[in-house]
Amino acid sequence: MTPDISERTAVTMTIHVEGLVAIAVFYLLILVVGIWAAWKNKHSGEAEGTDRSETIMVGGRDIGLFVGGFTMTATWVGGGYINGTAEYVYLPGYGLAWAQAPFGYALSLVVGGLFFAKPMRSRGYVTMLDPFQQLYGKRMGGLLFIPALMGEIFWSAAILSALGATLSVIVDINIKMSVVLSALIAIFYTLVGGLYSVAYTDVVQLFCIFVGLWISVPFALTNPAVSDIAVTAVKQVYQTPWRGSINKSDTWIWIDNFCLLMLGGIPWQVYFQRVLSASSATYAQVLSFLAAFGCLVMAVPSVLIGAIGASTDWNQTSYGPIPPKDREQADMILPIVLQHLCPPFVSFFGLGAVSAAVMSSADSSILSASSMFARNIYQLAFRQSASDREIVWVMRITIFVFGGLATWMALVTGTVYGLWYLSSDLVYVIIFPQLLSVLFVKGTNTYGSVAAYLFGMVLRIGGGEPYLSLPPFIYYPGWTTEMQKHHITGEMEEIVKQKFPFKTVSMIASFLANFAFSHLAKYLFESGKISHKYDFLDAVVSRHSGEIMDKTTLVTRSNNIGLSEMAPVKPRLSVTLAAAFTRRDTLPTETVEEEEEESSPDSPHHDELR
Q1: Residue 493: strand, helix, or coil
Q2: Residue 468: what pLDDT?
Q3: Which of 141, 420, 444, 509 is a good FRET partner for 438, with 20 to 30 A between their CA atoms?
Q4: How many CB atoms lie within 10 A of CB 159?
């Protein structure tokens, strides 16, 4: 008996040491690449006179096809994406039918590329909030910053929390130490290199995920404890078929969640950060389409691993007779499959790669939050005269602050996932309809924007959030109650389940409120029914004043920029593949002359959005 225990302990210690070494190697690789990217591009944009702060935010707008394709794909493909996809395929009662992230986010990138990438990139914006401040003013921009910031911070915290839990189970190291170390590495190289470091580490991140998972899948599939996944997809063997199904009563919930992923995946700074760093508007569209394909490709091994988990007799494995779903560990099915169904060397290559990828996923959200704060809050709302050096230092400080905040939340808040669910919903119901309005609907103003903000927020929060134990005060049609185990206390509690697609309805109501209240305010002020002196937001009567527009928006003239008069941003020209879309010799002579004329200092568009 004693020798067996000693032998098992020795094997466990060996596995832990191998696991720590593998993770350390991949962490070091990510860190080295991040620092190298910062050093390689430290003088980027200087020849063109680009501000250093803008280079940090959008990388000098010269991200190439190879790096651009990877970093755009990494907008959504990270640790949360691959773990979440495997989890839903594995979970009984859900299965592949409910693993909506791959198709949802892929379509999100397609829709973003078709309709949003071109106008945003063509006008030369630096962050996603620029068009809101241009049309609705700095105060409204500040309000819209709140849900955008919440989404980025809670997303980073959720990623770090999941990483800590995974590492603590797999290699038995302290969860706090793993979270803090991961966050420090991501914060450090983001501080040093900005978007360049984020983009280049994304290449390593996706390569690690792809190779690490695909090496592991054949070994897991051929493990004696695993049944044929083609059989378990349609027949019950160890649990319900992993193909999954959608009950008729849950159809509207499925549609609501899919719309949330497809449309709610667009209005994020992490996406527009990549769009605005592309060398041209056409290029931004191409990268979006490439990333959509990348999202689907990167989901395949996760789907297979989820299916393998659902097809395994866990009693034959080192994991034990009780399956992960019964141990409340379904969210870690991917690392569990890698650890218990693959040989040790394969297991830890996969686990090390996935861990490094999860850590690398947090960097872009932290950079996005600091970019929006430094430009749209600090510079445009409070310190219009701030120097470029000052903005750079504000960005560095906020990268550290927001990174520290996300780390703290990952360590002490048990409801970080619930907070992210709620904040991502608010991004969908508040920011998406306003982005639609500001880019494609003429006549909206700040009064409509405020009304839309309130409508969206009240209708969404009114539906409640079970994960946060937030009860609803609006009971939508078809609501039911059910008993559910609390994720922290483990006690059974009664929750209200909304079966009405209230998130999408809230988004549509917010959009209509913006349009209706904007035109109502315009009519009331311009017809004289309300005195001009009550236009306290300077949104209708006073918007024609050049002085007020100067103070409250990004541009120096009072007219809105229409899609037909986009301010060109001259890309850096090169003979690389990236320049194929912008080479002068591929353009008509008239187009080249127009670009030179419009980009000259005398052009009326030259100073816009600088």
Answers
A1: strand
A2: 81
A3: 420
A4: 29
How many Cα atoms sit within 13 Å of 91 on the Cβ side? 17
**Torsion region of 49: left, alpha or beta (phi above 0 gives left; psi -120 to 50 gives alpha):** left
| Residue 480, helix vs strand vs coil | strand
Which amino acid, 179?
V
> What does the block give as tokens for 401?
């602050």
| Strand ranges for 430-566 from DSSP E | 480-485, 492-497
CA–CA dist 196, 214 (Å, integer): 27
Three-state SS annotation for 311-374:
CECHHHCCCCCCCHHHHCCHHHHHHHHHHHHCCHHHHHHHHHHHHHHHHHHHHHHHHHHHHHHH
Task: Give the separation between CA 204 and CA 67, rounded to whole angstroms.
Answer: 10
Q: Which residues of the chain have pLDDT under 70?
A: 1-16, 43-50, 168-173, 357, 360, 413-416, 486-490, 542-610
Is there a contact between 171 and 348 (Cβ–Cβ < 8 Å)?
A: no
Name, in order, each residue with C-beta under 8 angstroms of 312's C-beta and a sequence gap of 6 or more.
Answer: 223, 225, 226, 227, 238, 323, 337, 341
Between the alpha carbon of residue 232 and those of residues 93, 228, 240, 246, the distances in Å are: 14, 7, 8, 17
Q: Return the pLDDT at 488.
A: 63
d(CA 27, CA 394): 27
Burial class (CB in 10 A: 0-12, 13-18, 19+), 173: middle
Radius of gyration of the chain (CA): 25
**Entry pTM:** 0.83
Residue type, 527: S
Answer whether 554's CB lies under 8 Å from 380's CB.
yes
